[in-house]
């Protein structure tokens, strides 16, 4: 495969409603898309970094910068071009490994090249990754709201739409009361879990244990991302299973967290771990150690959403993920909208991602483009 160059494209997409987590409120999504152009096909990658370094150290401007200064020059070097010509997308992680961190940029780069490669071969992401399902159950992530009645109205709306699992974002001051209210209103059969996005410390253990009575599927990332031992200790002090998100940045950190008893469940986000191929490694490790996994979300466009559907169709993804319909976040997507039917979303089967940006829609949301010639 011969890479001709990469297009960096920034899009700005308004959200259907503000999305508030313990680290901030988003009203629009500033996204970096990559288009890999080869002799045979074009492939798309989506960088999941947010506008500010609040979820992780990465932010969108930093990912564009590291791509321009370091990652793309490496891929365009004689060594990089030879490795990609020989091995395709599987060569990307090794080539970029000397550069520390910046996994979201690396993931987007690998995704774009993998998409181009698979489109040229007529093979789907799902088949390539090892998917076994043709549709996946769809959960929804519900932000922090100003009042419990408002939250109940929003959750009721999502349940009416058919979402099979509800995840409530929590933070100190917005945890036990809203969880209790959702359980009371919608009953014990609703699959329910919470996500703290690192908002607590181990000193909150007794308070967090009050969530145990609500039969939650899991509590996600209650403590700081580097506090692996804290999560292991918290796991001894509460019955609700601990799930890690921010802490798991590679298969290596996943293995350590599992071994130390810091998590009973893992939320896999390909952008956070450096790509879909590393995400598959974490999946394989989790299957081998009997740790259930599910696929998280980063408010992706249809491009990233399609790839996440392929990943979520792997056999170890035994819990419903955060891959919801496009309409959860965007009135208009840059691809054909990803839609939910009976609480499930179909896994794309076409070549590569199986979805392609629609030029008019892409242009409508584009704020800048830049071509880097190889
Ligand atoms: Mg999370």
TrEMBL record:
<dbReference type="InterPro" id="IPR010197">
    <property type="entry name" value="OSBS/NAAAR"/>
</dbReference>
<dbReference type="InterPro" id="IPR013341">
    <property type="entry name" value="Mandelate_racemase_N_dom"/>
</dbReference>
<protein>
    <recommendedName>
        <fullName>o-succinylbenzoate synthase</fullName>
        <ecNumber>4.2.1.113</ecNumber>
    </recommendedName>
</protein>
<dbReference type="GO" id="GO:0046872">
    <property type="term" value="F:metal ion binding"/>
</dbReference>
<dbReference type="InterPro" id="IPR036849">
    <property type="entry name" value="Enolase-like_C_sf"/>
</dbReference>
<dbReference type="GO" id="GO:0043748">
    <property type="term" value="F:O-succinylbenzoate synthase activity"/>
</dbReference>
<dbReference type="GO" id="GO:0016854">
    <property type="term" value="F:racemase and epimerase activity"/>
</dbReference>
<dbReference type="GO" id="GO:0009234">
    <property type="term" value="P:menaquinone biosynthetic process"/>
</dbReference>
<keyword id="KW-0456">Lyase</keyword>
<dbReference type="Pfam" id="PF13378">
    <property type="entry name" value="MR_MLE_C"/>
</dbReference>
<keyword id="KW-0479">Metal-binding</keyword>
<keyword id="KW-0460">Magnesium</keyword>
<dbReference type="Pfam" id="PF02746">
    <property type="entry name" value="MR_MLE_N"/>
</dbReference>
<dbReference type="InterPro" id="IPR029017">
    <property type="entry name" value="Enolase-like_N"/>
</dbReference>
<feature type="domain" description="Mandelate racemase/muconate lactonizing enzyme C-terminal">
    <location>
        <begin position="148"/>
        <end position="241"/>
    </location>
</feature>
<dbReference type="InterPro" id="IPR029065">
    <property type="entry name" value="Enolase_C-like"/>
</dbReference>
<dbReference type="InterPro" id="IPR013342">
    <property type="entry name" value="Mandelate_racemase_C"/>
</dbReference>
């Amino acid at each position: 495969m011969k890479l001709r160059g990469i297009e960096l494209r920034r899009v700005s997409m308004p959200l259907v409603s503000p999305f508030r987590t313990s680290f901030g409120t988003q009203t629009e999504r500033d996204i970096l898309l990559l288009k890999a152009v080869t002799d045979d096909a074009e492939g798309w990658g989506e960088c999941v970094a947010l506008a500010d370094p609040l979820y992780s150290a990465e932010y969108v401007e930093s990912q564009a910068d590291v791509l321009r200064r370091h990652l793309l020059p490496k891929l365009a070097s004689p060594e990089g071009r030879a490795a990609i010509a020989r091995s395709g997308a599987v060569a990307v992680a090794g080539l970029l490994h000397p550069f520390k961190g910046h996994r979201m940029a690396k993931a987007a780069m690998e995704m774009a090249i993998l998409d181009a490669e698979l489109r040229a071969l007529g093979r789907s992401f799902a088949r390539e990754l090892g998917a076994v399902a043709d549709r996946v159950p769809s959960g929804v992530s519900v932000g922090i709201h100003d009042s419990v009645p408002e939250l109940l109205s929003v959750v009721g709306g999502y349940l009416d739409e058919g979402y099979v699992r509800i995840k409530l974002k929590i933070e100190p001051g917005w945890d036990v009361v809203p969880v209790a209210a959702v359980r009371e209103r919608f009953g014990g059969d609703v699959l329910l879990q919470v996500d703290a996005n690192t908002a607590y410390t181990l000193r909150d253990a007794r308070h967090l244990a009050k969530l145990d009575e609500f039969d939650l599927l899991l509590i996600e990332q209650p403590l700081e991302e580097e506090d692996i031992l804290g999560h292991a200790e918290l796991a001894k002090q509460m019955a609700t299973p601990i799930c890690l998100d921010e802490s798991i940045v590679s298969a290596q950190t996943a293995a350590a967290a599992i071994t130390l008893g810091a998590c009973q469940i893992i939320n896999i986000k390909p952008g956070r771990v450096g790509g879909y191929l590393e995400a598959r490694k974490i999946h394989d490790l989790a299957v081998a150690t009997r740790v259930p996994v599910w696929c998280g979300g980063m408010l992706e466009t249809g491009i990233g959403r399609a790839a996440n559907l392929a990943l979520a169709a792997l056999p170890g993804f035994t819990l419903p993920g955060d891959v919801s319909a496009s309409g959860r976040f965007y009135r208009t997507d840059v691809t054909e909208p990803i839609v939910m039917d009976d609480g499930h979303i179909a896994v794309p089967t076409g070549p590569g991602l199986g979805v392609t940006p629609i030029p008019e829609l892409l242009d409508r949301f584009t704020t800048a483009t830049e071509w880097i010639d190889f």
